[in-house]
Amino acid sequence: RQDTSDMPRQTRKSSKQVKRVKLQNEEVAVQGLPRSFVVRKGKVGQTVKKLVLDMRRTVLPYTAINLHERNRNCVKDFVSVAGPMHVTHLIAFSSSVSGHTVMRFGHLPKGPGLAFRVNGFSLAGEIQALHNHPMSGTIYKTPPLVVLNNFDMTCNHHKLIVSMFQNLFPPVNVELIKIKSCRRLLLLNYNKEDDTIKLRHYAITAQPHGVSKSIKRLAQEKVVTMSNYRDVQEFLARTENASDSEMSDVEDAKVTLTQDFAGFANVAPSERAIASGNSQNIIRLVELGPRIDMTLMKVYEGMFDGRVLYNKFVKKTDAELAAARRKHMERTHAQPGADLGEIKEEDLDDEDLDLDEDEEEETAQVKQEEGVQQRSRTAGATRDAPPQKMQRV
């Protein structure tokens, strides 16, 4: 009999230790990948709160899906906790004084930051209510593919938009990527006519070409109701079981899969199937939501503060540029009498001259209210003044 008294005693790991090791391995696996916060800032309506939840599902899996924020939280609060949690991007929704919804998108911790005005949006629940069969939650386990269309790469602010949204998700290695992981698509399309950006979110599905809906029902469902048919031949011959879109030949949507894909009969074909020509699948997009139509208003050098690199509404004159340039030089402790050099709009930090459309409306309203208060005070002082005595001449 072997003596085991000197051998180390083997202990069974507890469930807490196993979970701790699993979490550490997951942290190492996702280290270096972009992460994001999607939050609301200040008091917003119920629809905007639902929009925040929909946007969190859009940028899954590397985001805080169960993040709870408060109305008094500001951008500095999220920046302070972003470092230890390795968060790289922040998307914040808020409401302006004029009632517009504003989406701010910034790179943590020092910027740059983009400010968009949301012209309109539709929630994901409203989009998916139009579909007969909602998509499963397994498609959110992998990040979406990003498609950016019609952006003018000669404009610096368009280049920044493209770079920011591309870096929001991990880079795609075409040689090593698995087709099974490509389950979603995020589309941003720029419309030059009205200067708006349309954000759309889709699920990528594949169907074998030439297979009717009835055949797929027989293969997928365990029990098929045949009470309305005399035999299987009648069930397969019914033309209403296959829609026109599914039976139509769409040449642009036909592809030959090189790897297995999720779904029924979406497998890589054999050489014999390729030679016979029965190896094509049809790729379709199913909209998931949300839909967002937005317009770029400002580009900040920092996290929604500092120099304004682009402003949609404010166009400065030469005199305003010179005054703002001098103010910027004084604020940076420039030596008096130094050469100011060439005046450039992107080098300025003119907070007094930098007003967007909402701020201009608010400023005009405040001035109007001050004028009304001044006139009311003048009228009140006239009424309260004691009557003057008439002098005889």
Secondary structure layout plus pairing:
Layout (H helix, E strand, L loop, with lengths): L14 H15 L6 E5 L5 H13 L16 H8 L6 E7 L5 E7 L5 E10 L1 H5 L16 E5 L6 H11 L17 E8 L4 E13 L4 H8 L11 H6 L6 H4 L6 E3 L14 H6 L3 E8 L3 E10 L7 E4 L6 H14 L25 H28 L9
Return the structural class.
alpha+beta
> What is the tally of beta strands?
11
Percent of residues in helical segments? 25-40%
How does the overall form come out from the CA principal axes? elongated
The Cα radius of gyration reads 31 Å
Average the pLDDT over all residues and give the rounded result. Answer: 77
Order of helices and strands: HEHHEEEHEHEEHHHEHEEEHH
Helical region count? Answer: 11
Unreliable stretches (pLDDT < 50, length at least 5) are: 239-249, 334-360, 388-393
- Major sheet attributes: 11 strands, mixed
Q: How much of the sequence is in beta strands?
A: 15-25%
Give the terminus-to-terminus CA distance: 140 Å
Offer a few descriptive terms.
393 residues; 20% strand; single chain; 11 helices; alpha+beta; eleven-stranded mixed β-sheet
Task: Explain what this protein looks like in three dimensions.
- This protein is an alpha+beta fold and 393 residues long.
- It has helices spanning 15-29, 46-58, 75-82, 124-128, 156-166, 213-220, 232-237, 244-247, 271-276, 318-331, 357-384, and strands at 36-40, 89-95, 101-107, 113-122, 145-149, 184-191, 196-208, 254-256, 280-287, 291-300, 308-311.
- The chain is elongated and about 85 Å long.
- Mean pLDDT is 77; it is low at 239-249, 334-360 and 388-393.
